[in-house]
Amino acid sequence: MKKGEKLILALIGVLAVVSVVYKGWQVSNETEEDPGIPYYSTASSELSDKAGKLLREHSCKECHKLFFLNNLTQNVPSPSLDGIGSLRSEEWLYNYFSAENPQEIIPTRLKPRFKMPSLAHLPEDDRRVLAAYMASLKVEDWYFEETRKMAYEKRTGEEYKPE
Ligand code: HEC
């Protein structure tokens, strides 16, 4: 082998090593910076259990995403409930669940069978449990704006423009 060829081979070798090390460094940096799942609940286990039962009874997850999980929702463009307690107060939620016609509070843009059903017929205790539990579903500060944007766009079908 000529000297020039050796030099080129050596250079390629060095570049390969550098690129592998750089990639590895990038990947490890990404995982270190990953702040994790932004959604959490402050509910006591008693409240979570009671609310969980109601969520199942009333098939909330047939339409809504909660902790990234839902049943068939991909097709129903209803709002995600992740972080809802950072967007709405408990009182607001209680009033919404008590409304005979929730669409007077949030107009729907969906076909009637997909719209939010009224929960006004539920016993007051159940509506309070649901409101308290929904209010406990928080989003970390760093993901608040993003959550607000997604909620707005789901609700209106329009692009969100921060003031
Ligand atoms: C048939 C589908 C469906 C079911 C079942 C359903 N929802 Fe909804 N929900 C919606 C839709 C769609 C909206 C958005 C408003 C609209 O289009 O009526 C909504 C809105 C909401 C909102 C307001 C979100 C916001 O932007 O502030 C909350 C909170 C909520 N639902 C909670 C619940 C809970 C709790 C249950 C179960 C007790 C439930 N939903 C069951 C479809 C549903």
Structure characterization notes:
The protein is elongated, with a radius of gyration of 24 Å. The chain has 163 residues and is mostly helical. The N and C termini lie far apart (67 Å). The protein has seven helices and two strands. It has two domains: 1-34; 39-156, Cytochrome Bc1 Complex, Chain D, domain 2, CATH 1.10.760. Heme C (HEC) is lined by residues 55, 58-60, 62-64, 78-79, 81, 84, 88, 93, 102-103, 106, 108, 110, 114-117, 119, 130, 134, 151, 155.
Catalogue the unreliable spans.
Answer: none
Q: How many structural units, i.e. domains? A: 2
Structural class: mainly alpha
Judging by the overall fold, what is the CATH architecture of the largest domain? Orthogonal Bundle
Radius of gyration: 24 Å
The strand order across the widest sheet is 1-2
| N-to-C span | 67 Å
Described by strand count, sense and barrel closure, the largest sheet is: 2 strands, antiparallel
What's the SSE pattern? HEHHHHHEH
Oligomer: single chain
How many H/I helical runs?
A: 7
Helical amount among residues, as a percent range? Answer: 40-55%
What is the β-strand count? 2
The CATH topology of the largest domain turns out to be: Cytochrome Bc1 Complex, Chain D, domain 2
Compounds present? Answer: heme C
Mean pLDDT: 87
- Name the beta content range: under 5%
CATH first level of the largest domain: Mainly Alpha
